[in-house]
Amino acid sequence: MNLKAAAEAIIFASKGITLEKLAKILRITTEETEKILNELADEYNLPDHGVELKRLGDVYRFYTKAEYAQLVQSVGKSIYTKLSVSQLEIVAIIMINGPSTLQQISEIRGKDSSALVRSLHKMGVLTRKRYKNSYIYNLSQRFKELLMIEEVPGDIAEHLQTATPSPSSSEE
């Protein structure tokens, strides 16, 4: 069996996989798997490929190269391109703070967000899970895949939170 071809097929079919899981499936060491992944990444970086192999967090996945993004986007028109500023604000809140209740989202925004959250849930941008007498909302896996994010790294979220001026600080 060609291990490089097998790794390529598994990554493609899984829409992303960790080094450890791929090594286990291929029944080889993580060092051997990492060597194969590096070879694949080098091959896909050549100009005759429209995709590239990237590692995002600890997940390896194929992504469209930037120069072909417009072409690919024209094939699959996304409803996500029509999100309003207010809807994007809710997405940003959840990206930074993690799964949140409607009450938490509304408190952060300073206004009722129920209609916007409901519309984002219907669009498939948000998922919800029952929590006590409420729901906890999170970004859907499909939306995360479209944005090519697994999660917002903690240091970025921390930076964004500290970069926001507090209401008590004022410039004179």
From TrEMBL:
Short name of one Pfam family: SMC_ScpB
GO biological process assignments: cell division; chromosome separation
InterPro entries: ScpB_csome_segregation, WH-like_DNA-bd_sf, WH_DNA-bd_sf
Keywords: Cell cycle, Cell division, Chromosome partition, Cytoplasm
Keyword Cytoplasm found: yes
Family matches, as PANTHER family: SEGREGATION AND CONDENSATION PROTEIN B
Protein name (database record): Chromosome segregation and condensation protein, ScpB
Organism: Pseudothermotoga thermarum DSM 5069
Origin organism lineage: Bacteria, Thermotogati, Thermotogota, Thermotogae, Thermotogales
